[in-house]
Amino acid sequence: MSQVEVHREAERGGWIYDHQEGVGEQQVTIVGGLCKIHPPSSLPASGPITPVSRSTPSPVDPEAVLIIMNFDPDPADLALSSIPGHETFDPRKHRFSEEELKPQPIMKKARKIQVPDDQKDEKYWNRRYKNNEAAKRSRDARRLKENQITVRAAFLEKENAVLRQEVANIRQELTRFHSILSKYESQHGTL
After folding, report:
1. pTM recorded for the entire structure
2. pLDDT digits over 56-84, tens only?
3. Partner of 31 at 20 to 30 A CA spacing, among 104, 119, 139, 151?
4. What is the DSSP secondary structure assignment for residue 137, as one 8-state letter?
5. Cβ contact 49:83 at 8 Å
6. Residue 80 burial (CB < 10 Å; 0-12/13-18/19+)?
7. Which of 56, 55, 58 shows the shortest CA–CA distance to 191?
8. In 3D, which of 104, 84, 188 has the Cα closest to residue 149?
9. Do 39 and 26 touch, CB atoms closer than 8 A?
């Protein structure tokens, strides 16, 4: 398959199967006008590969669509969004559940009750220490979740901009194809 054919296929979008002498079948993935060539070793070994028919497109799993874009989050933001000692938070892959994204109700603080100094015994100080530690853990967990949501939102905004541009390009291309088709039909009749 020549470069021109690959480019034409890239304009149409989809999959290309190319056979080169001594190389075998290669799969070329076109995403957003960018090509990725898969070597024969990464292709399934179940017989010859046939291209997908253009007339009957198969349904596409939205999660399986690869969107190529330049997104390099600040390492400091990733560090603030990751639990120390665990895997680094990846905003490209992480999915928040509906429950995690629900707004939390604002709780009224309970009225502070002053404890007289003569009642501040060992049990009191143990409870105060445990409560302070629990409050610190809660604040840290909330801050971590907020940082993760912020980094994920930045990624999604960037991805959304790329997808909107891709939709605009596809609409422009579709308009061009409709124009070409109408010119052809006016000269030669309907297909």
Report:
1. 0.53
2. 667 777 776 767 777 777 778 777 788 87
3. 151
4. H
5. no
6. middle
7. 55
8. 104
9. yes
